[in-house]
Design a protein that fits this description.
Chain lengths: ~240, ~325
């Protein structure tokens, strides 16, 4: 049923550090690579080498300029499913294809029940769901359920593909429902935030805002100073030639 | 939001169809109209045809229409599922009403009760349609208190104007229906203008700051994650109509409200000349339904989804 569980045993999710994300797109490509052969496979690309490229991706990295009183900075912003506690994408589903698991809180789609009405994508404020035109059903991030519980791969690899790929460790995976988990501690320490909390979806994922800049480093290099006039013969030549 | 033609046609056709069904059901229940077999057949036939065509077209935008039956299962949480259940359930009293009122030519008794139940079913179904849109929080223009009444007002308005055209065409103009059509067209116009005024002045708390968690200062999109339009932008970042919005609003108002209002007023004044009144009443219906298509198109095209913020749109 598309009714939501009153509570979930775990709240598995991601924490994304906007301070260290360098926008390299490694998480994007590794997500695509894993998931085009995973639970929601394939992630179809339409006209991939043509002029009208389109395709299904679960993770998209935007780049923003954030201008504040202390200067402006570039922020790379990965956007994917936040596995909300109150996901309207699930409750609007007329067929029961969309559901939220009571065990770990992951929001999933049963592709065999999806009629492709697209209402769930309208109900998601974050644009996490993408429609696959080739098979006529909606697709979304599974938090790599086929990795995180996969006993056929090494234990250290049992994290979502995007987390495993990140070269700057900007992506963290864990149980956000457990206040003692490493990931919850990280959120506390860095004052992690929810996206669009005003809409009441209660997203599980958290974003760590860029750290405050230290005041002894300006955002721009100091202005260049004119060189001291040189003495000696070359200095005399320079002064003579500089005369208007 | 991207305006899917099947959904625009669906909401316009079922709106008018359920509106007409409700008018027929209520008038049969109250015993207000002395109608012959052909009027009953044609009017109920048009109502059922509009409803059925609309419902069928709504399956046209599905990715997997063959699984549409599954949509009846999640009525506990989903307004779309409730709409499906209500639409199918309404066919039951409507079939009984058709049997008694049209085929057997009955009035009163169980036929009247079936008429009333059909009208209630029509109102419930249109309400569920309205709630599908009204419950979508990411779209501020839809999740407002104006949306549900709009669907109900426009359904009963187009239904009543159509009912009036049918009565006039069958040489049975009914002053109450004529004046109610006029009144409802005026109401619809006022409601639409109030909705636009509300939407234009609306300031939502959702900004690119809250969408990215970057508080304070200004956040500007400098690079998209992809070079071409993707599903999210095509479906939720639709901007084509915005530059023509002002003109389209004028066209929608002229077709849906102003011209039908004028034509309906003329048909009341010219009641003595039956064929002319009928002609005006029919023209009002056709223009109004055409206008509703424009209005519904704008309803989608002017709706802004929060995901567009991520793209700086």
């Amino acid at each position: 049923m598309t009714c939501l569980p009153a509570s979930t045993e775990k709240k598995l999710g991601l924490v994304i550090d906007l301070d260290t994300c360098v926008g390299c797109q490694a998480c994007v490509t590794s997500c695509k690579e894993w998931n085009t052969g995973g639970e929601m496979a394939p992630l179809t690309d339409v006209d991939p080498y043509g002029g009208d490229v389109d395709g299904v991706w679960f993770n998209r990295v935007h780049s923003y300029e954030h201008q504040t009183e202390s200067g402006s900075s570039t922020v790379h912003f990965p956007r994917s499913c936040l596995h909300c506690e109150k996901p309207a994408c699930v409750t609007v589903c007329p067929t029961g294809a969309s559901y939220k698991r009571s065990s770990d809180g992951i929001v999933l789609i049963d592709e065999s029940k999806c009629i492709g009405c697209k209402l769930c994508s309208w109900a998601c404020p974050y644009g996490a769901r993408e429609f696959d035109t080739s098979v006529g059903v909606m697709k979304k991030c599974t938090l790599c359920i086929d990795r995180i519980y996969n006993e056929n791969i090494a234990e250290e690899d049992r994290v979502p593909a995007c987390v495993a790929a990140c070269p700057t460790s900007a992506r963290h995976f864990g149980d956000l429902g457990d206040p003692d988990s490493a990931i919850s501690q990280l959120v506390d320490r860095r004052s992690g935030v929810e996206l669009m909390p005003e809409l009441g979806y209660k997203p599980t994922n958290r974003y760590l805002p860029p750290r405050e800049r230290t005041s002894n480093f300006g955002s721009a290099a100091p202005a260049l100073q004119p060189l001291q006039a040189e003495g000696g013969f070359l200095g005399w030549v320079d002064r003579m030639l500089s005369r208007q | 939001m991207h305006p899917a033609y099947s959904v625009i046609f669906f909401t316009t056709a079922t709106g008018a169809g359920y509106g007409l069904l409700a008018c027929l059901g209520i008038f049969a229940f109250l015993g207000f109209i002395e109608a012959g077999f052909w009027f009953r057949l044609v009017s109920l036939g048009i109502a059922v045809a509009l409803i059925s065509a609309g419902l069928l077209s709504s399956t046209a935008h599905l990715g997997r229409p063959e699984r549409a039956w599954r949509a009846f299962s999640q009525w506990k949480s989903s307004w779309l599922s409730r709409e499906g259940v209500a639409a199918v359930a309404t066919f039951i009293p409507t079939a009984a009403f058709g049997l008694g009122w049209v085929l057997l030519g009955l009035d009163g008794g169980w036929t009247a009760a079936a008429g009333l139940l059909s009208a209630i079913g029509a109102a419930v179904t249109v309400s569920t349609t309205g709630m599908i849109y009204a419950s979508l929080k990411p779209i501020a223009q839809w999740s407002s208190r104006y949306t549900l009444p709009a669907y109900l007002i426009f359904a009963v308005m187009t239904g009543c104007v159509l009912f009036n055209a049918l009565l006039s065409s069958f040489g049975q103009p009914f002053l109450w229906v004529q004046t109610t059509s006029l009144l409802l067209t005026g109401c619809g116009w006022a409601w639409k203008r109030a909705t636009w005024r509300h939407n234009d002045g609306q300031v939502t708390g959702t900004t690119l700051n809250s969408a990215t968690g970057l508080m304070g200062g200004e956040v500007r999109s400098i690079e998209w994650p992809h070079t071409e339009e993707n599903y999210v932008l095509k479906e939720m970042g639709f901007i084509v109509a915005r530059k023509h919005a002002a003109k389209l609003r004028l066209i929608a108002q002229a077709l849906t409200f102003a011209m039908p209002f004028l034509l309906l007023a003329l048909s009341v004044l010219l009641r003595e000349v039956g064929w002319l009144a009928a002609l005006f009443a029919m023209a009002a219906t056709i223009l109004q339904l055409a206008g509703m298509l424009v209005e519904r198109w704008l309803f989608f095209a002017e709706a802004r989804h929060t995901v567009a913020l991520y793209y700086g749109r």
